Amino acid sequence: MQSFTHVIQDPMGLHARPAGMLAKAAIAWPCSITVTTSAGTGDAKRLMSIMRLAAKAGNELTVTCDGDREEEAAAAIKAFLKENL
Amino acid sequence: MGFFQKLFGKPADPAPSTPQPSAGPIRLFAPVTGEAVYITEVSDPTFGEKILGDGIAIKPAEGKILAPCDGTVEQIFETGHAVTLTSAEGAEILIHVGLDTVELKGKHYTIRAHDGDKVKRGDLLIEFDPTAIAAEGYDIITPIVICNSDDYSTIKPHAGQSVAAGDLILELEK
Prior knowledge:
The complex is a heterodimer. Chain A has helices at residues 16-27, 47-51, 70-84, and strands at 2-7, 32-37, 40-43, 60-66. By secondary structure, chain A is of the alpha+beta class. Chain A has one domain (2-84): HPr-like (Histidine-containing Protein, Chain: A). Chain A has a 4-stranded antiparallel β-sheet with strand order 1-4-2-3. The longest helix of chain A has 15 residues, at 70-84. The termini of chain A are far apart. Chain B has a single domain, classed as Glucose Permease (Domain IIA), CATH 2.70.70. Chain B contains 3 helices and 14 strands. The radius of gyration of chain B is 15 Å and the shape is globular. By secondary structure, chain B is mainly beta. The chains are: A alpha+beta, B mainly beta.
């Protein structure tokens, strides 16, 4: 299992567009990928599940990758979040 | 779905609602009166290139968003610019009122439903002022996206026509 945290920089938070891009980035990996905030845990591969977290600028996301190619997936999602959120 | 959950309408935790088995296509109806266009005509690539999923878009002629089917409100963004619902059959629907309208931070939008509400087709979800939103420089085109598009073999839009709220706009087949 691989875990890391990311603090949301986008002033609009984790709204529809970044949530959709994150789901698209996550679905490419075979391992399970979850996103946890103080509001709960969502499946990073499902847009609705991510949006339900309603994460805002300044909120901390904990991303956990578990399963096949979890290290590569964690590195890729970390890079994605740094660039897009 | 458990008896108590059915009785009180709200699950104790935010687990996704259980999809119901269904016969025939899932039918979704226009949430707003206006002009129905193909989603590929939406200028924002997040929608036009179907990054969030396949669907349809409506250029609203009025300022009311109604439920496109019976289902559950998963989330109404507190800014009122978008709402997600799960249909009784399990289709995950995002209605995004205007492009980049998250930036308005709720201005010109009024929320008329709440997270977790069980709704019937035609129930009022959001009111908005299309004229004021357009006057601020935003495109008011409203994509209606099936977030779990991969669960369906066919997503048929009834685009290229004027629609009244409640007209058939999308048919989904497993």
